[in-house]
What we know:
By secondary structure, this protein is mainly α. The protein is elongated. Helices cover 81% and strands 0% of the residues.
Amino acid sequence: MNIMDKFEKWxxxxxxxxxxxxxxxxxxxxxxxxxxxxGIKVFNSPVPGGIEIVGFLGxxxxxxxxAYTEAEHGNIQVEFFISRLPRRIGATCAAFVSVLGxxxxxxxxxxxxxxxxxxxxxxxVSMTSRIPFYPFVYAIAFCCIPVCFILLVKIMKNIKKVVNx
Length: 165
């Protein structure tokens, strides 16, 4: 097993591990929504801050699912177009797209950390439940890192396809 295979195995292990956090967010969101509906219909009182909490859970679900989705090729791709090109040209296009994705997620991680720091320093919290915003912004930054690793593996694999005949 070469270094690239080990790197890919590690990136997939991380992505398959953190997706469970997003899955737990789905279950919690479901329970909260059911509790909110029961609270409104039966007790004439919704769960306090329920809408805010569902929004925060949406961030968790999305952020912690990004790496898994990238690792399992779950994103929309232009495979129809690339598959019709010669192998080396298709690999060049795929490498270029992966580089763009890598740059995007690296910038997203960096800017999320900067934004999280500013939110933490200002003490910004949600209006009803008073939950601080910054941990969720840091979660986005954290979850961009495995996506970058997976895209790096894709870049290396596609460069290898371009170089090898």
